[in-house]
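Input structure tokens:
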């Protein structure tokens, strides 16, 4: 008899994927549209942070997406922590003279988050912990988000300020759909891979005949 392949469910991928999927659908559960309220947004970001912690460290020492490499772990933690910090640090209301402050905070959050996501995606692919072709899923997800954001900026410049007002609902809906569907897809993929498990140590074949 040959050794049987043992596949053990990866609990960190199951848990992290569930947290990420929950964060993605939270705005829909609360019935929020494009403008998500402060409480649902903060709760969703806390779920994302929890998912990134699980993905970075794993559970019980196993299941880290980046094989516990410091650069990848830091990138995942930054990716989960930055949106929450910026949300809590952003004032709920500002005067017209302080609008520039919100703009600076918004652009700063975007730059840091995209940078952290890029580093995390590269480290996940390099670690080869996630099987092919799924280890490239974070890279594809980041590319989709960047494409949607860049396309919105290009369209805004191309059509001009007058027609842009007519396109704002469509562009906002596209951005909102991306913000929901991309993390939802990543969460589902993580849960699927976690349930499938990874190949572990081959199980010892039962001894049918006594040794000679």
């Amino acid at each position: 008899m040959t050794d049987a392949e043992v596949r053990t469910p990866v609990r960190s991928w199951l848990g992290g994927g569930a947290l990420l999927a929950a964060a993605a659908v939270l705005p829909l559960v609360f019935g929020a549209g494009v403008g998500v309220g402060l409480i649902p947004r903060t709760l969703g970001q806390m779920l994302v942070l929890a998912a990134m912690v699980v993905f970075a460290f794993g559970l019980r020492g196993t299941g880290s997406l980046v094989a516990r490499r410091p650069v990848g772990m830091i990138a995942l933690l930054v990716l989960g922590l930055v949106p929450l910090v910026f949300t809590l640090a952003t004032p709920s209301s500002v005067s017209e003279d302080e609008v520039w402050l919100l703009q600076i905070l918004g652009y700063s959050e975007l730059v840091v988050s995209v940078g952290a996501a890029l580093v995390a995606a590269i480290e996940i692919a390099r670690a080869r912990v996630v099987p092919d072709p799924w280890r490239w899923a974070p890279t594809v997800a980041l590319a989709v988000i960047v494409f949607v954001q860049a396309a919105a900026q290009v369209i805004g410049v191309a059509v001009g300020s007058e027609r842009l007002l007519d396109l704002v609902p469509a562009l906002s809906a596209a951005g909102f759909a991306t913000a929901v569907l991309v993390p939802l897809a990543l969460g589902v993929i993580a849960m699927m891979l976690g349930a499938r498990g990874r190949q572990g140590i081959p199980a010892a074949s039962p001894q049918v005949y006594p040794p000679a």
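Strands lie at 7-8, 198-199. The mean pLDDT is 79.
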